[in-house]
Structure formats: C-alpha cells, structure tokens
Amino acid sequence: MQSANVLLKKIIRNSVLPFAAQHGMKKDLFPLSRTLSLSLCLKQENSGSPSGKLDLDAWKKVMKSGLQEEVSETVSEQKELSTLAAAREILEMWRLAGRSVPENITEEQLKTFMECPSKSAKKKYLKYLHLKEFYKKNDKRKMDEKRERRLEAQKQASETDETKKNSFVRLWANAMDKAYGWRVAQSMIFGQPLVFDMSYEKDMSAREVTNAVRQIVLCESFNRRSVDPFHIHFCNLKDDSLYCREFSKHYKEAWGKLLVTVTEQCYTDIFPKDKLIYLTADSPKVMKTFDHDKIYIVGSMVDKSIKTGVSLARAKRLGLETAALPLEKYLLWNSGAKNLTLDQMMHILLTLKDTGDWKKALEFVPKRKYCGFVSKPVHELKKTLNLINTLKLGRRQEEARRQFAKNYSKKLMQK
C-alpha cells in the first residue's frame, strides 16, 4: 500500500501537476486524485488484503503543498530565464556601443555579472572577461601560427631530403668529399704544418675541455674545405687524456681515419725551434706578416676566466719565439679581452695564408669587440688624442687662474 502511494504521488507530481499549473486546473485536480485513491483501495479490497480508512483531507493538504512547491519552482525558473535574457540584451547593447564586452559568456559568468553590486563593478568584471577572452584567442592564434610554421618547416625538410636523395646530388657530394680528402692528404706531405698544443688539460675544467674540442673540430672542418689546407698536428695528446676521450666521442669510428697527425711528443721534439712561433695574445711582439716557412703553434685552451700569461709562460720555458695578432694596428678596439676562439684563429690563419691581407683576415674577429678598421695605427691616434686633451686641460687651467685672480682682486677692493 505504501509503495503504491509513493508511485502514485510521483506520477501525479511529474505529469499531472505541471499540466494543471499551466492550464489553471487546480480545482478539477482533486476529484481526480480522490477517484484514483478510491479505485486503488477497491482493488486492494477485492484482492483479499486488509483494508484501511483513507483520510481524504490529509491527502488534499499533501497534494496542495506539492502543487504550490512545483508552481513556485516553475515561476522562479521563468523569472531567472527572463532576467538572464535581459542581461544578455544589455550586454549586446554595450557591445554595439563599443564597450569592452566578451563575445561569448556562460550562464555562470552572466549570473556573476548580475550579482555585481554597482555599475562600475559590472564594467570591471566585463573588462576582465574581455581581456581573458582576448588573451586566450591570442594564445590560440600563436599556437596555430607556430603549428603552421612547424608543418611548413617539416615540408621543406622533407623536400630537401628528397633532393638529397637524388643520385646526382649524392654523386656530387661524394666527389667533393674525395676532392677535399685528396687536398688534405697532399697537405700532409707538402703542406705547411700547424700545431695545436694539447698540454692545457690541467688548466681547464671538463666543460672547458669539451668546448675546446668542439672548436678544434670546427678548425679541422674549415681546414679540410680550404683551397690550401694546413697539415694539422695534435701534439702532447695522450691516449688517456680528456681531450682524446672527447675526440673519440665526437668522431667515433672516423677518429682513427682522420687526416691529421696525432702524437704524444712535444712539438720541440719534432720540429726545429728556430722555425716555431707560438701565437699568444700576451706576447709583446706583434706579428707583421704571415711567414709560409714558419710553423705556428696555437694553444688548445678555452678559458672562461681569461687566465693571462699561461701560454706565454709555456713558450718562454721552451725557449720559443712568440707573436700576437696586430689587432690594435688595424682595429679600433672597443671592449673585452683580445683572446679569440680557436675556430676564429683558424679562419684568420687560412685567410692570411691564401691572401696575405690583414683586413680580410681580421674580418673574422667578432664585431662586438671593435668599432671598425683604422687607417693609421692606434698608438698614433692615441698620441693625437692625448695631445688634444693636454692642450684642452692647459687652456682650462689658464682660464681658471685668470678667473681666480679677477675674483681675488675684487675682494681686495671691497675690503
């Protein structure tokens, strides 16, 4: 009996009551509920189950309370929908008026907008939503552009890969590789030696040694593609050194086939001392011309802390001639140390060997370190500047003396 009453109540609440509330059938609804309950009681008496008295007044009160709740809920929902629609119309009017209003707004944001206490608060909230939507669209646009650029780069890479796979291009690359290898092989017999001193492992950290090896790899690559390459010697290179491990890591299987001379001996044991010139930025002697009969030595060192005098001290201990590049003679130096990287030194030496032109060679110096090339040596320019400054200072001193004497005489006259 209780389960049947619960089921009947659900049916009436979900189907009959909304229909009655919309069509104004409040009075006609109660006889229907009374007949349904009586018919249910009659069915129960016919089935032989124990019957009980039905309190129609109590049932009427229950039905009335349920009907009032359903009607109040529907009325509140209709009011809320009407206020939301009105708020959307206000937003549309503000958007047409040119105010900062978001294009898309959710119901929750609309409710928050309606709950704002003042008009200025509503404007600030709408501006916040507008900026948030604008940044979101901007991020999406950037992501789309980035995706398009990536796809375009992949497409270009695939096209270049297809061209590389072309048989003619591969044959050309192989032919050029053989030509470069033939030049380097000839330089190992007839070329001018260039020594890289590998005795600075103790003066560097592991990271600096790795950077030095990378620069030497670039030097070998530039030398290999040169018209007249050097015969490169890696001297003082031990098998268990960090230099050797980094070279093996980079070249892998090609390390044993590299067209360079690798030895543990010192360069003084291989070449005569009178032909050796140690290139160091700390040398007091400036290199004037490139000598094709000399053997130049480059220290394989990358020092982030700029340890001055290390390579110069080593050259003096070995009794070797030293030289520095004429940077101040041709360049108006701006700032920073005059130490260059190993690959920059290789570019300069190759250009000097091919052309003998210092201006072309020194173009490989980083432009951030100098203001430009000079027609006169820098020391002559410095002398001229010092002379101008002394003359200016002398004139200022004379004017100061005259002004002091004039003021002093005025004071005496006043007394």
UniProtKB/TrEMBL annotation:
Segments forming a coiled coil: 136-163
PROSITE patterns in UniProt: SAM_MT_TRM10 (PS51675)
Annotated EC: 2.1.1.218, 2.1.1.221
GO biological process, one term: methylation
Subcellular location: Mitochondrion
Signal peptide limits: none
Keywords, ordered alphabetically: Coiled coil, Methyltransferase, Mitochondrion, S-adenosyl-L-methionine, Transferase, Transit peptide, tRNA processing
Catalytic activity: adenosine(9) in tRNA + S-adenosyl-L-methionine = N(1)-methyladenosine(9) in tRNA + S-adenosyl-L-homocysteine + H(+); guanosine(9) in tRNA + S-adenosyl-L-methionine = N(1)-methylguanosine(9) in tRNA + S-adenosyl-L-homocysteine + H(+); an adenosine in mRNA + S-adenosyl-L-methionine = an N(1)-methyladenosine in mRNA + S-adenosyl-L-homocysteine + H(+)
GO molecular function, one term: tRNA (guanosine(9)-N1)-methyltransferase activity
One Gene Ontology CC term in the entry: mitochondrion
Transmembrane segments: none
Domain (SAM-dependent MTase TRM10-type) ranges: 180-372
The name this protein goes by in its record: tRNA methyltransferase 10 homolog C
Organism expressing this protein natively: Nycticryphes semicollaris
